[in-house]
Amino acid sequence: MSTIFIISAPSGSGKSTLVKHLLANVPRLRFSVSYTTREPRGAEKDGENYHFVTREAFETMLAGNEFLEWAKVFDRDYYGTHQGILEDAREHGQDLVLDIDVQGARQLKEKFPDAGAVVTIFILPPSKQELEQRLRSRGEDSDEVIARRLGKAADEIRNYEAYDYVLINRDLREAEATLSAIVRAERVRRARIEDQIRPILDTFKS
């Protein structure tokens, strides 16, 4: 049974960098590439950063109940996780890493209520000022877009109590190590490895 690791954070919190390090350093992880109706930004590539689809295509998949979770952001663009990626991860003995927002995390917690089936991690910036500085340093967004992102960040951060873990990204190397440690620790929860424990216990029977 695959574990779903959900990683959420306001835009600019360093989430992408942390996830990239996690995938490179912890084995048996599959990253879920989300579907979206928004236009690609900068050097983003279809199938690598997102699956870029039309609104009509997304809504057709939505009507067919093909998404594990989905959301509409800023009342404009759709984002969603296709259920096929979880099925593929299970077939290959992998855990799934999702980069999704609070709304999507809530949907998956409700869909998979068993303890440990979904592990949620929220990445928190050190402060609003630091987050704004990171957004401006990217040079991708206008002042209006940055203001909107900061407003959305404030809304997202209010939901931190819904998450299993909160990782404050003050120091990148420390945050990378902590995120990897969370995944490794979750993998050895007793309930998750009962099938490995019982054969060992059997060897001690007289």
Concise account of the structure shown:
By secondary structure, the chain is of the alpha/beta class.
Number of strands: 9
Question: What percent of residues are in strands?
Answer: 15-25%
Biggest pleated-sheet summary: 5 strands, parallel
Order of helices and strands: EHEEEHEEHEHEHHEHH
In percent, how helical is the residue content?
Answer: 40-55%
The tally of helices reads 8
Distance between the termini: 31 Å
Count of distinct structural domains = 1
CATH architecture classification name? 3-Layer(aba) Sandwich
Unreliable runs, pLDDT <50, ≥5 residues? Answer: none
The CATH class is identified as: Alpha Beta
Strand order of the largest sheet: 2-7-1-8-9
Judged by helices, strands and strand pairing, the structural class is: alpha/beta
Q: Could you name the CATH homologous superfamily?
A: P-loop containing nucleotide triphosphate hydrolases
What's the Cα radius of gyration?
A: 18 Å
What would you note in describing this structure?
The protein has 206 residues and is α/β, with parallel strands linked by helices. The protein contains 8 helices and 9 strands. α1 (15-25) packs across α7 (172-186) and α5 (128-138) packs antiparallel against α6.
